[in-house]
Amino acid sequence: MMKKMAALLLGALLSVNLIGCGAGTTTTQQTQVVTEAGTVQQEEIVESEETMAEETADNSVTLDGSLVIAKQGMFSAGGTVVTSDGTFDVSNYYTSREGSTSHVDHANVLYQIPEDESELPMVFLHGYGQSRMGWMTTPDGREGWSDMFLRMGHSVFLIDQPRRGEAGQTSVAGTISTDPSDQTWYTQFRIGTYIDGEFTYNENSQFPEGEDALDQFFRQMTPDTGMDSANGDQSIDNEVVAQAVAAAIDEVYEMTGKDSILVTHSQGGRPGWDTAIYTDHIAAIIAIEPGSATDVGSEAYNALLEKNIPIAFYYGDYIGEEYTDVPAAAMWAGMAATADTFTESYTSEGGVSTIYHLPDEGIYGNDHFIFQDVNNDVIAAHVENWVQENVD
User: Fold this and answer.
1) Which residue numbers in the chain have pLDDT < 70?
2) Within 13 Å and on the Cβ side, how many CA atoms surround 97?
3) For 98, which DSSP code?
4) What are phi and psi for residue 92, nearest 5 degrees?
5) Which one-letter DSSP state was computed for residue 361?
6) Dihedral (C-alpha) 329, 333, 336, 338: value to the nearest 10 degrees?
7) Is 392 exposed, middle or buried (CB count within 10 Å of its CB: 0-12, 13-18, 19+)?
8) Please, are residues 289 and 310 in contact by the beta-carbon 8 Å criterion?
9) pLDDT at residue number 171
10) For residue 119, what is the DSSP state?
């Protein structure tokens, strides 16, 4: 792969023209344009001799500096089919459930392939209470990581993990809690805390400020349909998730002929490690604050090492016991320490594992959602540099 300069990302134009969307469809009368404020507007294309001259072979129109999507779509991967006892009664078809089937526990994948595809595909796996939406935008409506990496030549495959978002069909009946919890997660995610009826921000925070941004951030939270959270059970079946993600990665290989860079976040980190057990098509794993690394000597650890998968850990700011005004700082320090243990062992056995604490890189003010912070472009460039240096 050719080395890219981070400046190419920082100077990227913000207009987006989605062309050739879906299976054989084209856009000739309207185009989606992302403005500098990040809002999507529908602009009617005025046919003229100049625009006609710019039409491509598939009768689509491109704009200067636009991001051209050659193909996009959705698919489900993995999962299982469960069948109830008995015989289906067609005469009572609307209420009969005996002898019926249900397709459940799969991943749902939204993908985009850029016209200028020059790099490995990237598969994005969200964390607890989230969906793929977090990779696609920011609370203040700026460009998300999925568009940024598309601009750098990567196809992107955005997963809703089993029992979440558009993959909500489940084999396990959960009871979703309706208890308010915004303040809890805001503090856990090291954005700030809640004092005297107001959300605060950590010093020098890179999180988008303002009530509108907070409103958008909280509204991207998504319940797990298989979780019995109403009764205090917040467990997630990592094996179900890992197998579905592996099936998605195998599908990506069938579509592109390339191994995938798996990008995980938070709770998605744990099944992300286990995914290596079930597929041979992971080119690298980039773990964004995964909570913990997999245990040294575990089945996942051995699979990662045997398949020679390079690893990068990324952690934001406000981690460590010295941050006495950040309630979750010490807890995150303990979880981040597992990456140190993993990396020491993994590298001693010939693997590649790199840990980045962003303040050590001169990048300050980032919380748990570094890919949605104001400086998400700077961190995306850092990630891409690591990819170019470490992933074949």
Assistant:
1) 1-65
2) 4
3) T
4) -125, 45
5) G
6) -150
7) exposed
8) no
9) 96
10) S
